[in-house]
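Inverse folding, one chain.
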């Protein structure tokens, strides 16, 4: 049985705190933690002195584009990009072509994802064919191995929402919603605000997100749990905070771009800044940071959305929505949250590992304790490096290229194996 000893790292557990410890990994699990562990015979040793050792990051919002857009990304390239970004597990969104909406497709792509460097999990379409017209066969999708339901890319339909919430809850799987009132988005491609006016582009008003968030929160208060994806607004995190105070069964995520950028950063008609929801105002960005710090936001996910360069070259009006994020999530979180003094390392471990593990029911992930899966993310808090223009991902649509960041992955360990080492 292969074993691996990680020595001298600062080990960060989201519940127990941080301490200098060695970690022995054996048979795909964490075997022991102690200040000093003597390497057993034949054991591989990795010196993690100066590194932060986190439980493997779990990205609950990833588009791997297979099937349908393999020129932008595949399961294989997404898993390698994840490993390079310190992400040991990812939940894939079902808005592929065809949509992941049948048990047969979920089984087929789960088989194709087996053995890749990061664990890829699948969410399945909540409505048949992601059409919004009728509910999918949720129990068949669960039996095929889906871990969550969502129509991401589209908002869950109003008429089916309460029924979907109840059925997902009865099956014990999370229901995730992309909160967007499309009638308010209209032809909008950028946040309605100064950047839209300056560039002469049609704006997306805040109520396109807020109305759907309010609708979802109210539905949850009556029917059961719902998880809100990629929140970007001061008003939506405010509504989530108020709903939580009332004890409603709601959780929410945001993405690194919403707390590191705003529409004030959009200087030209460059579609590497185009995503949904759009980059909002500087005040919204500050409100999202506050919501991360005060626990209104439960988790941070990348919403990794790769697109071919030729499509993104079309500018805001013609290009598809979305930016890549697997390889920049860790350094953006470390630089903008931890090193900026807004949250502790323990809180980061909660946001990117423990809470996503809980949402997805991954009981042996999210912590660094004996018996848990040997998934580890080792980050270097000292070395400054600019985001390169080339990525492991097949796509390079990132607004962060050239930005100096700290907290880059030094090594990634998934299921006890070193899947990335810089
Ligand atoms: Zn979405």
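Residues assigned per position:
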């Amino acid at each position: 049985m292969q074993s691996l000893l990680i020595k001298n790292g600062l080990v960060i557990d989201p519940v127990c705190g941080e301490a200098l410890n060695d970690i022995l990994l054996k048979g795909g699990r964490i075997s022991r933690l102690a200040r000093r562990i003597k390497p057993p015979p034949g054991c591989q040793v990795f010196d993690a002195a100066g590194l932060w050792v986190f439980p493997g990051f779990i990205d609950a919002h990833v588009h791997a584009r297979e099937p349908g857009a393999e020129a932008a990304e595949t399961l294989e390239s997404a898993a390698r990009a994840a490993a390079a970004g310190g992400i040991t597990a990812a939940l894939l969104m079902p808005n592929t072509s065809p949509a992941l909406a049948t048990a047969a497709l979920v089984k087929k792509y789960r088989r194709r994802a087996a053995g890749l460097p990061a664990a890829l999990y699948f969410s399945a379409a909540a409505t048949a064919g992601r059409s919004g017209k009728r509910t999918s066969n949720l129990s068949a999708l669960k039996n095929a191995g889906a871990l969550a339901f969502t129509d991401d890319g589209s908002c869950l339909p109003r008429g089916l929402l309460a029924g979907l919430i109840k059925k997902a809850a009865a099956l014990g799987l999370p229901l995730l919603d992309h909160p967007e009132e499309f009638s308010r988005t209209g032809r909008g491609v950028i946040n309605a605000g100064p950047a839209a006016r300056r560039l002469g582009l049609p704006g997306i008003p805040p109520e396109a997100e807020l109305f759907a968030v309010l609708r979802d929160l109210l539905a949850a208060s009556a029917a059961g749990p719902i998880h809100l994806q990629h929140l970007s607004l001061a008003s939506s995190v405010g509504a989530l905070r108020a709903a939580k105070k009332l004890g409603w069964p709601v959780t929410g995520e945001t993405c690194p771009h919403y707390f590191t950028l705003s529409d004030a950063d959009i200087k030209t008609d460059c579609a590497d800044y185009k995503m949904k929801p759009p980059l909002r105002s500087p005040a919204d960005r500050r409100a999202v940071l506050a919501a991360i710090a005060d626990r209104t936001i439960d988790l941070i996910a990348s919403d990794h959305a790769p697109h071919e360069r030729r499509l993104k070259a079309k500018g805001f009006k013609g290009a598809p929505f979305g930016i890549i994020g697997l390889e920049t999530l860790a350094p953006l979180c470390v630089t903008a949250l931890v090193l900026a003094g807004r949250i502790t390392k323990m809180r980061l471990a909660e946001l990117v590992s423990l809470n996503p593990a809980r949402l997805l029911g991954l009981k042996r992930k999210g912590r660094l304790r004996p018996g848990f899966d040997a998934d580890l993310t080792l980050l270097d808090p000292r070395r400054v490096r600019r985001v390169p223009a080339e990525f492991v991902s097949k796509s390079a649509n990132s607004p962060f290229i050239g930005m100096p960041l700290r907290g880059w992955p030094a090594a990634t360990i998934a299921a006890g194996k070193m899947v990335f080492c810089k």
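The chain has two domains: 3-52+373-421, 56-359. Residues 152-153, 178, 229-230 surround zinc ion (CB under 6 Å).
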